[in-house]
């Protein structure tokens, strides 16, 4: 993957530094008013996180643990976490974790992007949607796998059950990230990892950055499994709608397979995630209960912001992406 183009002083400093230039990393970053939607901050944080995943062409792996980059990453993470804490309010509740998660999901009243994609989205809007989703789906499951060595033995098997499916049960072609790559290919889009990072806005990067934030900090392991549970609990029916939307436009069966697989898999995963994973962790480490619920609520809140951005752009008759250079991604 190539380094993306900077979007401001923060991302420019990070990109210049890791590419071997003379970058001056800021100290004492003043958070922007809209942390979740800020292009510069979210891109800078996304680049710093990607050093822990697959890295970038021409960037030395040693930058992953550079103390100055880690200091800056910590500042940006603090701003993101503070925003999530301010945005997400978790009221006290003595019920079981699984019941609290179910209430969160059922009370989510954000706009339904999946319904729009099923009934109204045209081919260009579908191309934009797929480009947004490619930022995470091409590495699906990886951020949540960070939890594995941080969980008690009684809970590991629940996470492993979910992740085995995500990784195709040992069959590379059935990995969910590979199935999404096929979807992109079938839609005539780029399917290289990070291929659309320059096109997507800050809120799209924030979706993945929140997962990485929770995943790379042991102290946020409760939030990470809560995030995974919310993700799984809100996936099955939307994926059914996405598949119907693609078929409405005449997409191939191969293009729909990614979503078809999730209809069945995530219906099972949501039970495992809510009861065995989150419930098991809360039983083993009760002090993490509120973090579990917070992580789930954060997942839902950021997803609402993303849906509002995409649907708001389309309602105004403009692209939901930052660029419209590719005719497949432009709004007619």
What does this structure look like?
By secondary structure, the protein is mainly alpha-helical. The chain has helices at residues 9-18, 39-50, 67-87, 97-106, 113-119, 123-137, 142-145, 153-166, 176-186, 202-215, 221-233, 236-248, 253-284, 289-315. It has two domains: 9-87, no CATH class; 97-329, Heme oxygenase-like (Heme Oxygenase, Chain A, Up-down Bundle). The chain is built from 14 helices and no strands. The longest helix has 32 residues, at 253-284. The radius of gyration is 19 Å and the shape is globular. 46% of the residues are buried.
Q: What proportion strand?
A: under 5%
Total count of strands: 0
Please summarize the sheet with the most strands. Answer: none
Q: Roughly how many Å apart are the termini?
A: 30 Å
The poorly predicted ranges are none
CATH topological fold name of the largest domain: Heme Oxygenase, Chain A
Strand and helix order: HHHHHHHHHHHHHH
**Overall morphology:** globular
CATH 2nd-level architecture of the largest domain: Up-down Bundle
- The first-level CATH class of the largest domain is given as Mainly Alpha
Radius of gyration based on Cα positions? 19 Å
The percentage helix is 55-70%
The average pLDDT score comes to 94
């Amino acid at each position: 993957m190539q380094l993306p183009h900077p979007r401001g002083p923060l991302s420019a400093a990070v990109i210049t530094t890791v590419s071997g230039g003379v970058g001056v990393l800021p100290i004492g970053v003043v958070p922007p008013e809209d942390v979740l939607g800020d292009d510069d901050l979210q891109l800078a944080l996304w680049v710093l996180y990607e050093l822990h995943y697959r890295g970038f062409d021409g960037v030395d792996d040693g930058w992953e643990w550079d103390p100055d980059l880690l200091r800056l990453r910590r500042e940006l993470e603090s701003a993101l976490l503070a925003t999530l804490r301010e945005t997400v309010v978790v009221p006290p509740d003595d019920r079981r974790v699984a019941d609290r998660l179910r209430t969160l999901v059922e009370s989510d009243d954000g706009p339904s992007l999946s319904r729009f994609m099923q009934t109204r989205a045209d081919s260009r809007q579908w191309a934009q949607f797929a480009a947004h989703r490619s930022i995470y789906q091409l590495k699906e499951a990886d951020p949540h796998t960070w939890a594995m060595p941080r969980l008690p033995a009684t809970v590991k098997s629940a996470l492993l059950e979910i992740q085995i499916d995500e990784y195709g049960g040992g069959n590379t072609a059935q990995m969910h990230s590979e199935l999404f790559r096929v979807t992109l290919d079938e839609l005539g889009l780029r399917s290289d990892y990070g291929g659309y990072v320059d096109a997507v806005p800050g809120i799209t990067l924030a979706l993945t950055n929140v997962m990485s934030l929770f995943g790379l900090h042991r102290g946020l392991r409760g939030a990470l499994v809560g995030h995974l549970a919310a993700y799984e609990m809100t996936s099955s029916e939307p994926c059914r709608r996405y598949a119907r939307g693609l078929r409405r436009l005449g997409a191939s069966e191969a293009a729909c397979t990614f979503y078809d697989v999730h209809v069945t898999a995530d219906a099972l995963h949501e039970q495992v995630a809510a009861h065995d994973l989150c419930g098991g962790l809360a039983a083993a480490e009760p002090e993490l209960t509120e973090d579990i619920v917070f992580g789930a609520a954060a997942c839902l809140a950021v997803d609402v912001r993303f849906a509002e951005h995409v649907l708001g752009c389309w309602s105004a008759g403009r692209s939901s992406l930052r660029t419209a250079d590719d005719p497949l991604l432009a709004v007619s």
